[in-house]
Amino acid sequence: MRLRVGATVLVLAVLLGLSIVVSTAFGAEQLPLGSVARVLWARACGCVTTDLASDTIVWQFRAPRVLLAVLVGAGLALAGVGMQTLVRNPLADPYLLGVSSGAGVGASAVLTMGLFASAGIYALTAGALVGALAAALVVFGVATVQGGLTPLRLVLTGTVLGSAFSALASYLVFRSPDPAAAQSVLFWLLGSLAGAGWQQLVLPATAVAVVGVLMLLGSRWLDALLIGPETASAVGVPVRQVRITLFVALGVLVGVLVAVSGGIGFVGLVVPHAARLLVGPRHRSLLPVAAVLGALFLVWVDVVTRIAVRPTEIPLSVVSGLIGAPAFLALLGRRRYRFGS
Amino acid sequence: MSGLEVAALTCAVGRRTVLTDVTFDVAAGQVVGVVGPNGSGKSTLLRALAGIAKPPVGRVLVAGEDLHRLPARARARRVAFVGQEEDLPSGLLVEEAVALGRVPHTAPWDTDAADLPVVHGALAAVGLSDLARRPVEDLSGGERRRVSLARGLAQASPVLVLDEPTNHLDVRHQLHFAHLLRGLGRTVVVALHDLSLAVATCDRLVVVHGGRTTTALPPAEALAPDVVRSAFGVTATPVTDPATGRTHLLMSLEDL
Question: Which CATH architecture has domain B4-253?
Fold first, then answer.
């Protein structure tokens, strides 16, 4: 049975709003909900707050971090929907195009060789972004030369080149004299939202909004593309142009997300399927529900990473994988759920 | 209404040329059948006729316009195409699948609401009105086939190109479908593997065989016994149905 889209988005959005507020209470330093509310209220009305410690924790550290979780979760879910449509494959996730491995090369180069040092604290983000976009460009080029952006070609090219990029990143780490480099590269690859600041929200917010709106505007074309290139072409969809646009949009979106948060597994794979079960496969319904669901999921996954082994943090992929893998099996194991064939 | 003009068409799959020098005309409102043995290039020809696959040589004209020079959307308003096999995503409702036929008439961000009358009309035409709100994976193979046909009808184009539309259909629905095609008042090009059905349904037939096609000929002429023998390797004996007066073909293997 399908749920009504409007009501579903509304309920999920309310849950997300509550989660954003409540989740700022959790972390190395546990805060009572009362003081979280007082800090946020003071910030909202512009009053002077008396509790400076809570204000710093909630407003400077946790609020931007939670909002980054919202953006990355929503973005990965949108990218997952887009990728599964582009390659017509239920196993596709946002990292299929080798984008995360490319970002890994960039990040490893920054962490082990001090590349982009002039970018200061943004060096890691800059390196990862350059690596991600370069990887997407290489996959795009190779697939195009070898016969076009067809689903099978993209899956093969993306997977193979992704392995090559991973090998390159491993080599960079291996030849680094710094023993701590391996640990920081590993931690980065597994994803983390630690150290998020307000300024870091602008780029992902823009990417998620632009790509989300773009996909929503083309939702009927994406529906047709999911059935197959021949049918899509028969109903007047400019298949080649739509595929190229979708590829570029996904490459940039995923590149930006990986650059600010590392590689977070399973969100972009599981959330689209969950959303499809709730509201059906049509993109107009699927995209908004997947986005809000992805945001909600990642906000709480991030909370777990902060409080599971206090005061240390564990990487996001550890938690999202432990929750995501069984969830994925449970979803796909349902007898009535088929994606394509 | 407009007819279809096929001029000196060469059809290819990848770099392999499958058919050369295909030339025939379809008058407006006529139903033309494409028949030929397996692998003769019927589907390739149909994809070229529908403007889906660009042929290396030749032109396909609808109302004087070359289909392969039109943008996809403009082309889809003139020709609807329903291919042989279609993989409908699970969870899609029947009316949503049919509504895809309205894509060339609406913006890609539009809802289906304005199209529902056309969609339900198309579903009624193929006898699936009762299943409009059912998920496609609940349907049988034949019903899914009719969903794809309804999508082609909903596209409301003057020309309809159908590849083996009667596959998976039971005998009643095959005949119903043949009747439906004749009553559409559209120009139809349809590939059929059942020669008797082709004879009963079509105004003209094009026989595809040995890398060539015939022009569009009346069924009795197109499927003359010597043509059937060389194209299909069977002996065809025309008989007249005493009840309806229609001609049917009896087939037998030559060497039996």
Answer: 3-Layer(aba) Sandwich (3.40)
Percent of chain A with pLDDT over 70: 96
Cβ <8 Å between A337 and B90: yes
Q: Which residues of A touch B109 (CB under 8 A)?
A: 216-220, 284
B156 touches chain A (CB under 8 A): no
CB contact under 8 Å between A230 and B108, yes or no, is no
Q: What is the pLDDT of residues A119-135, one digit of tens each?
A: 666 788 888 899 999 99
pLDDT tens digit sequence for A83-122: 999 999 888 889 888 888 998 899 888 888 877 767 666 7
A25 min Cα distance to partner chain B (Å): 39
> What's the rounded mean pLDDT across residues A226-249?
93
Q: What is the 3-state secondary structure (H, E, C) of chain A?
A: CCCCHHHHHHHHHHHHHHHHHHHCCCCCCCCCHHHHHHHHHHHHHCCCCCCHHHHHHHHHHHHHHHHHHHHHHHHHHHHHHHHHHHHCCCCCCHHHHCHHHHHHHHHHHHHHHCCCHHHHHHHHHHHHHHHHHHHHHHHHHHHHHCCCCCHHHHHHHHHHHHHHHHHHHHHHHHCCCCHHHHHHHHHHHCCCCCCCCHHHHHHHHHHHHHHHHHHHHCHHHHHHHHHCHHHHHHCCCCHHHHHHHHHHHHHHHHHHHHHHHCCCCCHHHHHHHHHHHHHCCCHHHHHHHHHHHHHHHHHHHHHHHHHCCCCCCCCHHHHHHHHHHHHHHHHHCCCCCCCCC
Domains of chain A with bracketed CATH: 5-20+65-332 (1.10.3470.10)
